[in-house]
Amino acid sequence: MPQGAWTSTSHFTENAVSLSRDGHWLFFNSNRPGGFGEIDIWASYRQDVHDGFGWQTPVNLGPGVNTAGFDAGASYFENEEGGAPLLFFGRGVSFATQGTTTDIWVAELLPDGTFGNARPVPELNSPQGDQRPSIRFDGLEIFFYSNRPGSTVDASGNATTDIWVATRKDVRDAWDAPVNLGSVVNTGAADFNPHISGDGLTLYFASSRPGGCGGFDIYMTTRAKLKGERLSG
To answer: 187 near 152, Cβ under 8 Å?
Structure first.
């Protein structure tokens, strides 16, 4: 950031940034050269979490995660009870059809430092678009956005993207059926790209709702305590 001005990372798309809870890993989407498809997930590591410019050259997460289509919106989960670290993300045929083809997948980090072949998370997915998961630090709650049945409809009666949540009692359990976060969070506009804070008490998301400053604005909502009984980390 020379003289207070942000510098461009590259001439390609880089977005949907997500940090690991320990602050060492940064995951993001990109269509830069060296990938496997239209949009891939990349990662960068820094040794010092207090060094904002200490990021190493990003690496593509490989064919276990990335395909010839659309792979994006990663959320990294690691704790002692969860076993091997996991990467949750959205996968679809293409960016253009993400509203109908994207599902949530998960890949396990292998001992050699690469990710194994990803698998879908069926209890979170629907025939509509389900993507941009954000998992709570203890692995018992996961947020994502979807236009599945039960989502808010716009003035024309078409389903918009809403933020949904699913919970489980143990990190080894399957997820319970997803629940719409309701009118406190969702509107008849597009509400999407949720991110749960490190302490699990603040949810950030984007929305095109009226009253903002532009086409899409960042919003936040808070809660006083966590949902669920077993906490770790």
So the answer is: yes
